[in-house]
Amino acid sequence: FFRYDPVYINVDDMRSSGIQVLETRALESPGKLYFYKNMLFLNEKSQGIHIIDISDRDNPQYLKFYGIEGNYDLAIKNDILYVDQIVDLVSIDISDINSPTILTREENYIERYIGDNRLIYAYSTRSPQTTIIDCGNPNFGQQRFFNEDVVFLANDAGAEFFDSNVSSGDGGTGTGGSFARFTITSNNLYTVDQSNLSTWNISDGALERVATKSLGWGIETVFPYKENLFIGSNSGMFIFDISNPDAPTLQATFEHARACDPVIVQDDIAYVTLRDGSECQGFVNQLEVIDVSNLSIPKLIKTIDMKNPHGLSYRNNRLYVGEGSHGTQLLDASDLKNPKKVELMQDLPGYDMIAMDNNDVFVTGEGGFYIINTNDPNDVKIRCHIPVSRN
Fold first, then answer.
1. Residue 19 near residue 105 (C-beta atoms within 8 A)
2. Is 339 in contact with 298 (CB distance < 8 Å)?
């Protein structure tokens, strides 16, 4: 088992500290990514956001680092950055990148017990530890268990579990990856936590909660497509109609084997990755291809065996799937219903990605951040690489 010890923060201190603006910060644990106005907003798990100018994709320039303790998710519309900060939801004016200003703080947007005015906002890993559990122990057969505030995981997948604890858009919005838990369409921000879908009106840059729907435990990601939201959970996919943006309506639920579940959609086809070795306690590694032409009755078309699929992205008849430490898989998706593997890029460990029109792909993974170009699928070019710091 891998042991993870809690890192605490005082809630009052968190809320009074504001945003710490730094010129630069080492990339240590890259998380979710968001593309906006030729800038990459790259989450440093539980620490904040790197802002990188990638207008010259061969030579990206570091702009700023926003220190936001407890941050994992983000979305942007009209120069307003929306972020989570442990249990708070915050809107930030970034029209001047050098001088961000907090506009609104929605306290306790996620309901969570706050004891002694402090919260756990991250976990630090220690060396693997062997724990013997006999069959009479209630933790027998579990992939994770708790001992007070200390967590033990059977696999070294803690970062994914802990960020889930605590996409693309239109108009003046940017593009997020498939692990996004925030997404914007029109004048609404949609957020998911582990059990709820919340709708926020952001027409004036502030935050006004419009509705919250309980979806049951294990909610992971949200992906907007046309007038629908596709929500991934560790037991299935929910499809919501947002033709009335303030009142998402459940269209259908597609169930699958228990596993972590990012989802993206192209035309009438949804792609879902399922993987083992994670907090979701799943035992399959596959890509599911699902017909959603009838949103009320999604149908599985086929499954494709994978190594350990994480995030994914589609563009120009190509499907990209992050295979974790195994690399990044490129598939030919000219036939959307029947994608075929082309190449596994083993030197590009993939967690999440965003594919662009010119066949550039932004990739995050354990090796850091990459921009690759796949104009020639048989000769993938690495345009730039920002490595993680090993210090």
1. no
2. no
Structure tokens at 313: 């992205």
Tokens of residue 275, six digits: 């993987």
Q: Of 6, 236, 234, 278, which is closest to residue 143 (Cα–Cα)?
A: 278
**What pTM was computed for the model?**
0.85
Cβ proximity of 100 and 81 under 8 Å: yes
Encode pLDDT of 329-372 as tens digits. 999 999 999 999 999 999 999 999 999 989 999 999 999 999 99
Cα–Cα distance, 32 to 49 (Å, whole number) = 9
Among 342, 1, 9, which Cα is nearest to 158's? Answer: 1
Residue for token digits 């699928």? 377
HSE-up of residue 114 (Cα within 13 Å, Cβ side): 16
